Structures are given as C-alpha cells and as structure tokens.
Amino acid sequence: MDVIHTDVLVIGGGLAGLRAALAAKKRGQKVIILSLVPPKRSHSAAAQGGMQASLGNTAKGAGDNEDVHFGDTVRGSDWGADQEVARMFVHTAPKAVRELAAWGVPWNRVERGPHDVIIDSQKVTLNEADAAHGLITARDFGGTKKWRTCYVSDGTGHAMLYAVSDQTIAAGIPVHERMEAVSLIHDGTRCYGAIVRNLTNGKLSAYVARATCIATGGFGRIYQATTNAVINEGIGAAIALETGVVPLANMEAVQFHPTAIFPAGILVTEGCRGDGGLLRDVDGHRFMPDYEPEKKELASRDVVARRMEAHIRAGKGARNRFGEHLWLDITLLGEAHINSKLREVKEICHHFLGIDPAKQWIPVRPAQHYSMGGIRTNAQGAAYGLSGLFACGEAACWDLHGFNRLGGNSVAETVVAGMIVGEAIADFCASPAGDMHVSTALVRDCLEKAEAEFTALSDGQGTEKAGQLLREMQAIMTEQVGIVRHGETLGAAVDALQKLVLRSRQIGLGGRRPGADPELTTAWRLQKMLKLALCVARGAEQRCESRGAHFRSDYPQRNDADWLKRTLAYWPDAAQPLPSLAYEELAIAGMELPPGWRGYGTRDAIEHPATAIRQAEIDAIRARLGEADRHAIQDALMPFRHLLPAHLRGNNARLDESA
Amino acid sequence: MIKLFRRTPASQAPRRLTFSILRHNPADPASRPQLQDFEIEEAEGMTLFIALNEIRATLDGSLQFDFVCRAGICGSCAMLVNGRPSLACRTLTRDLGTQITLAPLPFFELIGDLSVNTGKWMRGTSERLQTWIHNAAPVRLDALEERMAPELAEAIYELDRCIECGCCIAGCGTAQMREKFVGAVGLNKIARFHLDPRDTRSDADFYELIGDDDGVFGCMSLLGCHDVCPKQLPLQTQIAYLRRKMAIVGLS
Question: Does A273 participate in catalysis according to the annotation?
C-alpha cells in the first residue's frame, strides 16, 4: 500500500488552494498540494476583469468602504448570502489586494488628472486626485454602487495566480501535479486525507493527512454551454458528497454569465460592460435600458442574463448558423483602450471569431459560468459533517454569494477565503482535535474500494459510451436546468438524469490500456458528475421560488416567507436514486441588512414577517448611536471581527481613513 | 452586418481533414513512436481542441492530449502543428490545409502522445531562477499600498503575461544543445523581476542566476522564441537588454 503522510493535504492548485496552503505552511504545518494540472494552468488564470476590494482610490470609487461593498454583495446574492461571511470578506478583501501588490501583482494604477471614459454611452471626463496618483485603480462592474474592481488589464486572474503560485514555490510547498483525489478517507466523523489517482500512470495511493482542504473549483462542465475550463468537473465536491455525511449547499444556485462568445462559450469579461460596452439586439438597438433603467447593462449577472434570454425569446436575437445570440458592442471604447485594458478580449475575438472588437460587434449569449453552491462550510471553512475536512473557493459554499455572485467577488473570494481558511486549518492542526489516530485497515479499505470502482469500470462489458452519456447530461442541464426553469421541465430533467445513471452502469470501454486511460477517467468522472447534476436539478425542482440566478417561471417571485433558507443536499446511501434534501434557515433576526429590493430587477418579493421587526431594531440602533463611528455602528448591528484571525481584524486605511 | 469569419465558408460539402498524429505511450513497453492518421469531417469554427476531442470520442479513446481553458489563456495545449509550436486550442482548422500533422512539443518529458510535462520543467525553472519578489520587508495588510507609476505597472504586466506554454523552448536552438538552458521563458521572468522595484535583488544577484551559458549568454540570438510566442512577448528586446546588463556585471 502506497501511503504518503502530511499535516495538511490541499486538493486543488488554483488560487484558493494555493493561498490556503501558504497560510498553513507559514504556521509551520507540512503541506502537500494535489493538482489536476500544473497550478499556473488552473482556471483561476481565466478570471479576466478584476477583483473587488473597496480601496476607494479613484474619483468614481470615492466614498467606497466595507459598508458599501457589503450592501452590494448581499443585494447581489438576493439575500441568500451568509451576512457574517460577507462582512468577513469585504473587510479582508483590501488586505488581500495589498498583500498581492507586495507579492508583485502589477495592479493598474491611478493616473492623476483628467481622463476620458465612457459611461452610459457618453464620453465623460473624470479627474483623478493628485493624492491618489500611483495607488491601485478600479473599474466599474455589475451590481456595484462604486467603481471597486481592481484589475491588471484583463489578465487579473493570471497575474494573481502567478504571484501566489510563485509564493508557494518560494515557501517550498510541493505540488503533486496530475493527481486526482478520488475519495476521502473517513470513518463517518473524521476525515483522514484522500485516496489519489495518478493521472499519468493510473496508480492509486493514499494521502493520509490531519487536515484536508478541498479547493477544486466549480462544476460548470455538467453544462453544455459553459465558460468553465475542461477540468471544472466538480469532482472535489462529489467526493465530499459521497461520504454521505457532508452536504453540498445551494447546488441549484448556478450563475450564467451574460457575455460568453457564441457559440464557443469562451468568456469575455464583464469589464467590457464595466468600461462602457453595450448590449445590442438584431436591430442594433441597445435594449437593456428598456428593462433595467437603473443599472442598464450593469445590473447583476443573473438579471442581465435573464433579460437577454427574454429578449431573444421575444424575437430580437441575431442569428448565425449556430443559432440565436445578441451583440456586445465595445467599439465605442476605442482601439487604444481595448489594446491596453481589454487585450485578452481582443485576442479571443481575433482567434475564435476572426473579428476585431474595436471595429466589429461580438456575438454573445449567456452561458454557465459559476457555481455558487458547493461543500457547505462554517465561517472558518470547516465542512459540515466531518471533522478535519475544510473547503474554500468556488468548491465551497462558504456562503458569500448566496443565489448570485457579483462579478469580481469570486477571484477575491479565492484569496480572502484562502487567507482565513488556511489559518483555521493551522489552528485545527495545533488543537487537540487536530491529533489523529487512523487505522491502517481503514486506509486499506478506502483504497480497495476505490480500486474496485475503477476495476468494475474497466471490466464492464456494457455497450454504453461514457462520452455519449456525458454529452446527454450536459444537454439536459443546459436545456432544462438553465437560466429559465419550470417545475415540469425540472421534473423531466430529474427523470432523464436518473435514466442516465442507470445507463452509466452499463458502460463498456473501447479496450484496456496501460497507464491512465482517458476513456476510463471519463467513465469514472461521469458517475460523480451525474450525482452533482441530480443535486442541482432536484434542488431547483424543490425550490418553489425565484431568487438570484435560480429563476422559476412558475414561481417568479422571491419568497422570503417560505424560502429564505439554504438547501443542503446529502447522499447518505450510495444506492439511493436521488439526494436527500434538508434546509437551514437564514435567520433575519441576526441580519445587518434585512431582505428588501436589490435596486435592480423585479420588485415583487413575498416578505417574511421578521423583516419589519428586524428593520425596526436596526433603525433603533442607528438612532441611538447617531453620529458614532461607522465601525461602532456596524459592530452594534452584527459583530463579525471575532470570526477572523487576529491579524486580519484591523481597520483598512484609505486616503480619507486611517488604519 | 458583421462579418464573422475570416474566410467565406465554402458552399460545397465540408472538407475531410486528415490528422497525422505522433503516437507513443511510454507507460506501455510495447509502444513504439509512430504517426497515426485519423480522418474527420471539418465543422464550422472548428479548433484543434474540438477536432482532437472528436477524434478521441469517436475514433480512439486512448489518445492523450492536454487542454484546460481552451481559450488561449492557460498554456496547457502547446504542440507542434505542422511543425510549428502553437497553442492548439486557438488554432482553427480553416487556417490549415486538409493534411494536418500534430506532434508533442520537443524538449519536454513525454507523458503520452501529445501530452508533455511542461509543469515539472517550469516549476524546476522557477525554483532555479527564484522567480518571486524578493523583499524582506513585512507586508503591511492594513496600510495604503506602496505607490507605483501607472506606466511602470503596465510595463511589468507586459512581461508578466507569459503563460509558460513552452513554445519558446520548443522553438529554441540553444535548448536543442544545452539541456539546462533556461530559455526565453526563464530570461523573460528575470527581466520581469529586474524591472519590478518591489524586488530588491541587485544586478549582481541576477548575474548569479543567469550570467552563464545556461543563462543569457547561451542565447545565440536565433530568436525562434520571439517568432513563436503566442502572447507576442517582446522577447528579443528583453534578452538583448538583459545580456547588456549582465555583461556589464560580468566585466566589472
């Protein structure tokens, strides 16, 4: 039995996993990172437009602070977020940006004096203060009151990933590349690491760890039309689900990005619209102001994606040989701006569409983009159900994003959560709970069980092909569990997915091959992805309301009275055909910002009776504290700093605020 | 109306494409390197990512290759396309003839077929060249960030755009002869940190890393790297600049 021992096993070499690993390593823990691919090739690299942090350095960011960022994030989430977590996040985001600056991320900087920008299709001259010259600048993104998105041209994720990855190399943290965790070693109460498959030679081994952190990103590849990389198959979340005791939360909360190029599904950044780009229809008409007079193209992603699909259904889509789409027009931004601030967009348009976006419109249609749901954790990133198991980043449902995440908040979440969860992992390892007594029999059992799974697949004599089943699943998800959902089609999707599960037990491979056979890998992953798809579809079918990205045409209102709760999907018995769903309430009594209108989108929510009571309490607290310091008022409404590691609790300095 | 594609789509039947792919599975003792032909029908907007996945799905489930982002961002899929190092994901079949030869990048350890271990080599190069900001000052998380001239930040990003795809190494004459040559990818990284005022290393420190024939003095100025870089990094000027800087250190 091939066994490797470590203090901390981080599964996933993207930004969240790398940053968590660094935090644990700096506290003296022995850390190993597993990654499907070389870490610098992780999907974090594809984050283009930027990372939100309320530095408030620019003219259009003046007055920004944690309070404004918090309000935007909670409204963006359609009140699905955990508000304490949202507070921890907005408080730590400026620290994360500044840490990354010290680590070499070449953030774009404020240039003093006047400069021309495009706002709402008009040329406007902004004047940047002398005092701000050389500080980190920001651009506009959807669903925000201030220009808050810090950026490095449109290669922000790339620059961040390289800086953090280089820090892990400097810290001497080993990354075991081309390795896939295929199951967790656990006894039903504690996690002891993972069984790992080498994707080069197909061999299985056991990684025994005192703490295990899953940071494997999202599961966009269960959809046909997705901006996600091919490695975003959700296997990390699936192996947590398969423990039977760890729940996946809010799996039905799936984000669709408004501007994926059509039909390839490759992302072009929200920064296109943030910098002044417009959405146009078949007639060249700018249609978003008709639907969203307040925020227009810069409403939250769920709202814009929904309006786009509705506009196409109203017969206003342009058409090419692949189907219907709309246009993203950034020609008005000018060639100089595109060449410096949107150069990845320019390259993508050139290579995949053969167009120059400075001169031609970009064909776009919404595509799956982000998984708000994932492994349910507490505010420190500890997974529900298993001691010693943690999760962070997109793989987790920490729950910063609720039912819709704001653009620029996810790449920020990766590093912020990594900082916080990495400390919690180190705390755990240093505590009595971090001690471990693991039986070799348990490790061997887990290894043999995993081996049996692969052997059964490679011995299979069936006639089904994994690739075909995968494509059928992806089509079902995009067509029936997409942007606009309905109880009947969701029910049909659940049935169809269950049929695919049965067929997936009849797979026959094209042959037995030495090494890590890609066909066997696909067949094995398919089993996991089908479970995730069922969690999404079943969760969506059961949630009889519309909230954020989850829109039900048969229940078009947000229903706080009945549905202000988080879905928890468990799979306790491998033989059961569907996940078991449970729910946890989001208590209004503890909220700093009780449910209300988001400031965009429809305005017809069914109110919860506790909302008015909590609002009255908040009004009374604010009246009592009057002109008190904003931090003191916030602390009276909903204290959160005790949830953060001590070194992350300090106030953030701004040009007009001292630390 | 907007013209979507570079070439007018042919009005006739779609083309049949023949892919000659260099196959070898080092995990299989019986495997011998050989070219194998696969024929598929071209589709509108087909990239090599789409074509290779179709070949694997319909013709040979064992074919090995690497894609991640499939958007030209992550650097996973570099291979020789008709002999030239290229990112396969953003190579459109309509820009190629009907006979397409694919081979793995030379120089790197072969994993199988078109898959090579660039990750291991890049990590080793990072460790050797210490490609991170060297600065002993503690990071102040709560304070205003250090200021930087906007144009300097942009100049650093220009060099930071390298995606470690390995094309420059595959196109490098020196790398064919010197196994330990750091290549344009390594030299560009040094140029990037040299430019960055947050890195406190001196020219003499950098000389220790690249001041020999495995470093900047190994470059023969053939500059295949510059020609094949998919991110069009200014490799020619950066290598020339570094060579002057390092020569000054070496002569002083």
Answer: yes
Residue in A37, A106, A166 closest to B156 by CB: A106
DSSP helix/strand/coil, B250: helix
DSSP annotation of A349 reads I
pLDDT, one tens digit per residue, over A65-118 is 999 999 999 999 999 999 999 999 999 999 999 999 999 999 999 999 999 999
Give the tokens for residue B187: 């030299």
DSSP A555: B
Residue A257: active-site member:
yes
How far is the alpha carbon of B188 from chain A, nearest alpha carbon, in Å?
14
* Nearest Cα residue to A604 out of A559, A562, A565: A559
How many residues comprise chain A?
659
User: Rounded to two decimals, what is the model's pTM?
Assistant: 0.97
Contact yes or no for A402/A1 (Cβ under 8 A): no
Identify which of B69, B90, B150 has the shortest CB distance to residue A351.
B90
b/e burial code for range B139-149 (CB count within 10 A of at least 16 → b): ebbbebbeebe
Cα gap A237→A220, rounded to integer Å: 12
CB A370 within 8 A of CB A218: yes
The Cα A463–Cα A216 span in angstroms is 32
Chain A: closest CA distance from residue B12 (Å): 15
What are A123-126's contacts with CB under 8 Å, separation 24+?
A126/A58, A126/A59, A126/A60
Q: Which of B61, B151, B236, B94 is nearest to A354 (CA)?
A: B94
Tokens, residue A74: 């909670």
Q: Do A352 and B141 touch (CB under 8 A)?
A: no
Cα–Cα distance measured from residue A418 to residue A6, given in angstroms and rounded to the nearest whole number:
19
In whole angstroms, give the CA distance from residue A544 to residue A487.
8
Rounded to an integer, what distance in angstroms lies between the CA atom of residue A497 and that of residue A447?
29
How many angstroms separate the Cα of A449 from the Cα of each of A188, A210, A389, B238?
15, 21, 20, 54
The model's pLDDT over B141-194, given as tens digits with 9 standing for 90+, comes to 999 999 999 999 999 999 999 999 999 999 999 999 999 999 999 999 999 999
**Residues comprising chain B, all counted:** 252
Token code pair at residue A475:
């089509």
Using the Cβ of A557 and the Cβ atoms of chain B, whether some distance falls under 8 Å is answered with no
ipTM of the complex: 0.96
Instruction: Identify the sign of the CA torsion B76, B81, B86, B90.
Output: negative
Catalytic residue among A87, A158, A257, A301: A257
